[in-house]
Amino acid sequence: MTDRPIALTCGEPAGVGLEIAEKAWSALRSELTFFLIADPDHLPGSVPVQLIDDPADAIAVMAQALPIMAHPFAAPRTPGRAAPQNAEGVIDVIAQAVDLAMSEQVCAICTLPIHKKALKDGADFAYPGHTEYLADLGNVERVVMMLASDQLRVVPATIHIPLSEVPSAFTQEVLEDTIRITAKGLQDQCGVAAPRIAIAGLNPHAGEGGAMGHEDATVIAPVITKLRAEGFDLASPLPADTMFHAAARARYDVAICAYHDQALIPIKTLDFDGGVNVTLGLPFIRTSPDHGTAFDIAGTGQANPSSTIAALRMARQMAQSA
User: Fold this and answer.
1) Are residues 234 and 89 in the same domain?
2) pTM, full prediction
3) Is 209 exposed, middle or buried (0-12, 13-18, 19+ CB in 10 A)?
4) What is the pLDDT of residue 1?
5) 116 marked among binding-site residues
6) 269 is in an annotated binding site
7) What is the CATH number of the domain that holds 299?
8) Which principal EC class is assigned to this enzyme (predicted)?
9) Which of 5, 141, 245, 265 is the most buried (most CB within 10 A)?
């Protein structure tokens, strides 16, 4: 699969994504091949670029210039200020990348950050975010968000909901689906033949025998018993405050957590700049930097490309493993 390039989508033009794309090309030009789908007029212009018509053309171009597959947008780029007229273009670029992945013209997709409010305001975007839109384009009902770095992989079973809603949303069905999708994704796309999966308890001390909540015994434990009988390697439920130090991390390949911050705090503490967002369960490989559009520093040259560089490298590694 790695004889094909990676498609990098432009994301919100007013954010830092295009600046980071140029920096990523400078860092990776002799290491791997990707091309950017964007409006060439939006590029900051700090590196040489070359237009391509076919993804395969990126291979010959990459060493000399950033390959660009042109997708014209309705309005100019103003760093830090999203133009509503460009919302449709952002959405169409994502769809174009998925078409290229589904037709096997690219080995993976890496997506630069979008701004959900800008898409809602400018194009009545009907999805909570990137991941849900990609799932719809890929014709799958449920996907899993995994945050990954060299030190840790984490999966939140529930994501962007208030903490007060987590206990009702964190059901046996949700947990079982999350485990199954995560295990398959690690096997099929990450080269982990027999994934060791740790499950974080919902409550402090994993409920401490019911003294601090019953969900760990009534929701998590039955799922683990069922899936262990099918051959899954599961450790659970583990107290979340003791499962992320180095010795504990060495005992599992991925940690599934009950809610957003339980998963993201440890990985962002360990590797804030190098964490990568991976979507498991799609019919194609998708990675993304683990940060937003950063309107406050857009156009200043301060944007750190580390997460995007890591995301592109991880996309290539996953393509090699698939």
Assistant:
1) no
2) 0.94
3) exposed
4) 46
5) no
6) no
7) 3.40.718.10
8) oxidoreductase
9) 5
